[in-house]
Amino acid sequence: MQLTTLIGEPWRDYALLDSGHGRKLERYGRHRFVRPEGQALWSPASDDWQADAEFVPGSDEEGGGQWKFARSVPRDGWELGWQDVRFIAQTTPFRHLGFFPDMAPVWAWMQGQLSDATAPECLNLFGYTGVGTLALASHGARMVHVDASKKSVEGARANARLSGLAEAPVRWLVEDAAKFAGREVRRGRRYDGILLDPPKYGRGPTGEVWRLEEHLPALIADCRRLLDAESRFLFLTVYAVRMSALAIGEMLRQAFADLPGTVEAGELAVREEARGLALPTAIFARWSR
Ligand SMILES: C[S@@+](CC[C@H](N)C(=O)[O-])C[C@H]1O[C@@H](n2cnc3c(N)ncnc32)[C@H](O)[C@@H]1O
Q1: Which domain CATH number covers 35?
Q2: pLDDT, tens digit (0-9, with 9 covering 90-100), for 169-222
Q3: Ligand 1: which residue has its CA nearest to atom 19?
C-alpha cells in the first residue's frame, strides 16, 4: 500500500507559524500559542517567538502541565471560522485549543466525497466539539454526532448555533461510540459516510472503557456494516498511538474487501508557514467509493 501525506495549509484563522526544538508556534485568530511538539525534531526558523501563552508540560509524558499566560486571553474562548463553520477556540487543560486544526483537509475531503450525493446521512463518532459534523451539515448532510462527553456535545451545539446551523438536521447524542455503532448495526441502519476520530483511551457516559488498540478492529467491522456499495466514505484518524499508517490501512482494506472503492492510508500533517515543511500530527486510513 502506497502511503499518502495529507497536508493542512494555513487559513485565515489558523496557521502553524514556526516549529522546532520540540515545540510549535501557532496562530488561532488574533492569538498565538506555543505548545510542546515531539515531532518537531528540527531547529525553528526564528529564535524569537512572541506568544500570548505557552503550554508547559508536566513531568508526565501523557498528561499534566499548564498554560502560562504572557498576555490576557479570553478564558471562555473566542470565535474562529473554517469555511462557513464558526466555532469557539479556547485554551484547554489538555494542551489543545478545543478543536483540531490539522483535520481541515479531512473536512474538505469528506465534503468532496458527498458533492454529488442527494440528502446524504453521515455519522461522526467521537465527534468532540463538532467542527467535522458542522463541515458536513453546512454542505447539506444529515448528521448523527456521537460523543461520550455532555460538555463536548454542549460545545458542539453552541458551535452549531454560531454557524447558523441550530436548525440543521443533526442528532446530537451523548453515547458510547462503540455501543451506539453496535446498536445501529442491529437496527439495520446505513450511512453514506462515517468519520471516526477515536482517542487512545476514553470512557463512555456510563463508564464503558475504550482502548484503541483493543477495540478499534471491532468498531471498524461495525462501521463497515453501516456502509454499503452506495455509501461514499469512511475516514479514520489515529493520534499518539504506537501504530503505523500501514497497519490501520491494511485493517481497513480487509474490512472493506467486499465493497467497491479504494482504501488509502498515510500521515496527516500541517504546513509550517515559515518554511513550508510539513509537521506530522496523526496517521489516517480512509475508504472511498
Ligand atoms: C476527538 S477525540 C480525540 C481525538 C484526538 N484527535 C486526540 O488527540 O486523541 C476525543 C473525543 O472522544 C470522546 N470519547 C472518549 N471516549 C468515548 C467513548 N467511549 N464514546 C464516545 N466518545 C468518546 C471524548 O469525549 C472526546 O470528545
Answers
A1: 2.60.40.1180
A2: 999 999 999 999 999 999 999 999 999 999 999 999 999 999 999 999 999 999
A3: 204
Note the pLDDT tens digit of each residue in 229-272. 999 999 999 998 889 999 999 999 999 999 999 999 999 999 99
Residues 39 and 57 in one domain: yes
The boundaries of the domain holding residue 30 are 8-74
Please tell me the number of Cα atoms within 13 Å of 157 on its side-chain side. Answer: 13
Is this structure's pTM higher than 0.70? yes
Q: Supply 93's cell numbers.
A: 487543560
Q: Looking at the 3D structure of the chain, how many domains does it have?
A: 2
Find the 97 Cα to ligand 1 centroid distance in Å: 15
Q: Is there a contact between 87 and 163 (Cβ–Cβ < 8 Å)? A: yes
Asked if residues 79 and 131 have their Cβ atoms less than 8 Å apart, the reply is no
Please work out whether the CB of residue 249 comes within 6 Å of at least one atom of ligand 1: no
Q: How far apart are CA 141 and CA 46, in angstroms?
A: 43
List the one residue out of 187, 271, 264, 279 whose CA is nearest residue 226. 187
What's the gap in Å between 151 CA and the centre of ligand 1?
12
Q: Does one domain contain both 36 and 172? A: no
